[in-house]
Amino acid sequence: MSDTVPKPRPRPTPTSQPYWDALRDERIVVQRCRACDHWVHYPRSRCSKCLSDQLVFQVVDGAATVYTFTVARQATAPPFVDEVPQIITIVELAEGVRFTTNLVDVAPEDVRVGMRVQPVFDHGDDGMTLLRYRPA
Ligand SMILES: [Zn+2]
Question: CA–CA separation, 66 vs 103, rounded Å?
Fold first, then answer.
């Protein structure tokens, strides 16, 4: 019997399914509002700026910069004991959207706000792909 706690996994909704499908294919899609051109992320049913429901997914290249970060040197929850130190980061895409992710393939002391990072597609055994980042 294993005493490891399973990691939480994404559960797509009808609204977010295109995002997860794209990640599985190693593409990043972000919603854009047809009414006001605002970029919207995470996936949702209404524009966060004008409340229009005319949102469409568009492919973006995913290049980003580190907006802010913290280093968790103790597991933030039991499923993550194997991931410390964990670099919890908010990145900003060129389109202006920001989201939380993890940085990988870098030492915590080498991370800087404003550093350029590129996507890493972390494919899970369950068919879900998580979007992480590494230095560009
Ligand atoms: Zn809008």
Answer: 9
Going from the Cα of 39 to the center of ligand 1, the distance in angstroms, rounded, reads 8
Q: CB–CB of 29/59 below 8 Å?
A: yes
pLDDT band per the 50, 70, 90 thresholds, residue 5: confident
Q: pLDDT of 11-29, one tens digit each?
A: 999 999 999 999 999 999 9
Span from the CA of 115 to the centroid of ligand 1 (angstroms):
30
Tell me, letter by letter, the H, E, C secondary structure of 40-59: ECCCCCCCCCCCCCCEEEEE
Tell me the two tokens of residue 7. 């990691």
Ordered structural domains, the chain, with CATH:
12-60 (no CATH), 62-136 (2.40.50)
Confidence band (pLDDT; 50, 70, 90) for 31? very high
What's the pLDDT tens digit per position in 36-85?
Answer: 999 999 999 999 999 999 999 999 999 999 999 999 999 989 998 999 99
55-60 and 28-33: which strand pairing? antiparallel
Distance between CA 67 and CA 98 in Å, rounded?
Answer: 8
Cα 36 to ligand 1 centroid, rounded to whole Å = 4
